[in-house]
């Protein structure tokens, strides 16, 4: 069913958007007929490596998947508990996947673009009036009242490329007034997802100035939460409802949602992360008392990082993307839309600076529409033409059309630093057969 038949759409605004046309930059999807399949994953070495990580106590466990050509290999190591107890990791274990939610939100947004409900480059003010007539800090570290008018309106492209003007400011601990204000408002990028309704989120955001002019700087994360709220306002539906109807159900992603229902919670392992309360950093379990609770529907479906899923479910989404928007005879996106999503949309200026550098993988990555895209291979997963992303809860997933590879690694071990975890490095080096 078309998205337009599901939402409570303002017909007048829809007609205006449709007549304006779908503003896609011209690009073409790389030819799938030239796929080389020259990579040989070292699956035995991968299993050995992950078993060793479990044995040394670096992770409790993990489940991973390597799809190569027409073959899919799934394996696991370890158990749910750090001490080796609890249920073993299985193929159907459900993981909180954090920021690998972003490509899914990007794909859904592009489905609305194709239907004419949204455009990439027109202002979003009609649906998000909180973003209209914004004020912008004169300096990112300046006082909140030292501002100038924004030099352009915010667009969907700004949201999906995370250049709309607000997001992660990479200064630790929080030092800039805008950082502290975002933290106080509950909208700062964090392991803890926003604990407020979409309207409350936008009210909190509207009370703050932007940290940069729209289109000026890459500031990570918040753009995808705002994009999710935009999708909801355009259609009149919850993000979770739309994702289920338009992607999860038709793709067969039966275990993917923004929370885990009671009958499946035995398949959701504890979430482990750093405990900063002691003198030396130790590992603790993160749960509802820490603001991380996937046992109930959230007040806001976070398009930036709120999904839980399994390796097989996420594979279905990745296969659709690798096939140029089609899977098993059903088309979800036009090939041109997938191409637009997976090309580097950022300028050299947007990629540089202390708040963008760490997300560009030492110069090896750029950013498309909701997804990181490879520019050169500075990391094991950045094969030419590949796209995907990593999640702070311990997940990584990339699609490599040129080599016919999809790799998905899901763990319950939070990232503890900007540097890629050793498990990610192990996984991808073995997927690509690196020595």
N-end to C-end Cα span: 48 Å
Mean pLDDT across all amino acids: 91
From N to C, what is the helix and strand string? HHEEEHEEHHHHHEEEHEEHHEEEEEH
Biggest sheet record: 7 strands, antiparallel
Second rung of CATH, namely the architecture of the domain at 35-106 and 251-431: 3-Layer(aba) Sandwich
Strands in their spatial order, largest beta sheet? 2-1-15-14-13-12-11
Give the helix/strand class. alpha+beta
The percent range for strand residues is 5-15%
The CATH superfamily of the domain at 35-106 and 251-431 turns out to be DD-peptidase/beta-lactamase superfamily
Shape: globular
Tally of alpha and pi helices = 12
Low-confidence parts, pLDDT < 50 over ≥5 residues? Answer: 7-36
Helix content: 25-40%
CATH topology of the domain at 35-106 and 251-431, anyone? Beta-lactamase
Radius of gyration: 21 Å
Number of strands: 15
- Supply the CATH class of the domain at 35-106 and 251-431: Alpha Beta
What labels would you give this structure?
435 residues, alpha+beta, Beta-lactamase, 7-stranded antiparallel β-sheet, single chain, two-stranded antiparallel ribbon, 28% helix, 12 helices
Your description of this structure?
- The protein is α+β, with helices and mostly antiparallel strands and 435 residues long.
- It has a domain at 35-106 and 251-431: Beta-lactamase, CATH 3.40.710.
- The protein has twelve helices and 15 strands.
- The protein has helices at 11-20, 43-55, 102-115, 156-160, 177-185, 198-206, 222-235, 239-251, 311-322, 335-341, 348-351, 422-431; strands spanning 61-68, 71-78, 95-96, 135-137, 147-149, 271-275, 282-286, 308-309, 326-327, 330-331, 365-367, 372-374, 387-391, 395-400, 405-411.
- Strands 2-1-15-14-13-12-11 form a seven-stranded antiparallel beta sheet, sandwiched between helices. Strands 3-8 form a two-stranded antiparallel sheet. The protein has a two-stranded antiparallel sheet with strand order 4-5.
- It is globular and about 60 Å long.
- It starts with 10 loop residues before the first helix and ends with a helix.
- Mean pLDDT is 91; it is low at 7-36.
